Amino acid sequence: MAASLDKLFCREIELEDESALKVYQCETGDVGCVVWDAAIVLAKFLEIAAGRSANSSQQRPGTSIFCSVPLQNKTVVELGAGTGIVGIMAGILGADVCITDLQEFVPRMDLNIKENADRIQGSVKACTLKWGEDITSFLPHPDYIIFSDCIYYEESLEPLLDTVSALAGSNTVVLWSYEERTTGNKPELQRRFFEAVRKNFTVEEVPQDSLHPVYRSEDIHVLRMKMKSQNKDLMG
Ligand SMILES: C[S@@+](CC[C@H](N)C(=O)[O-])C[C@H]1O[C@@H](n2cnc3c(N)ncnc32)[C@H](O)[C@@H]1O
């Protein structure tokens, strides 16, 4: 079933050149229908880290290596993209991006790509990718895998891990964000996700002072991971 394109409103995220990234989100609907705060923090981090911001590391010597995320001509796959805001930001910053989610969200992601077409310097396309399913059509391994606020569902924790592991090559950088939640099973899901990824990936948190000063928040974390194994690409 396609997510309805009725009852949408346009949300504008200010860019450092004073234009705006525009995304349509639904007035009502499930989790994939709105922009989540963790997505905005990750998107604005990409803008800083790509050096397009007055807040970028290039203007703050001495800040950590996390601040450098070159995206020009890099390949990016976004998982659970929802509105697609983070992947579209990567496209604006010059990357060739595939934003993915369940099939029902593809029409709205297409709409959001179209809305930002004149700002996209790389390329952005929207595709269906259900976690845990075959990722062959997304190979070769991308330079970056990105996702925001996807550690949310008990039933899809393992499939998400499987997809990240299958898609990541030995040189792939995985950048992801989440909002620390304290209710229900969310703390336990987050703990289990960290425990699982640490088996095969080095996981480092981007320091808060490397995130955008206006958008960062103590309860939103940005992580950077790389596979521990060096021989993954030989296998697939
Ligand atoms: C909390 S929303 C976050 C959306 C977006 N990344 C953001 O931060 O604004 C989680 C997203 O994961 C997607 N999702 C959930 N289960 C999925 C699955 N099994 N395969 C692919 N995407 C899934 C949802 O459709 C939704 O867009």
Give a description of the structure:
The structure is a single chain. The protein is α/β, with parallel strands linked by helices and 236 residues long. 26% of the residues lie in helices and 24% in strands. The chain is built from 6 helices and 9 strands. It has helices at 37-49, 85-92, 106-115, 157-167, 186-200, 232-235; strands spanning 8-14, 20-26, 75-79, 96-101, 123-128, 144-148, 173-179, 201-205, 220-227. It has a 7-stranded mixed sheet with strand order 5-4-3-6-7-9-8, with helices on both faces. A two-stranded antiparallel sheet has the order 1-2. Helix 1 packs parallel to helix 2 (85-92) and helix 4 packs parallel to helix 5. 41% of the residues are buried. Mean pLDDT is 88; it is low at 57-63. The structure holds S-adenosylmethionine. S-adenosylmethionine (SAM) binds next to helix 1.
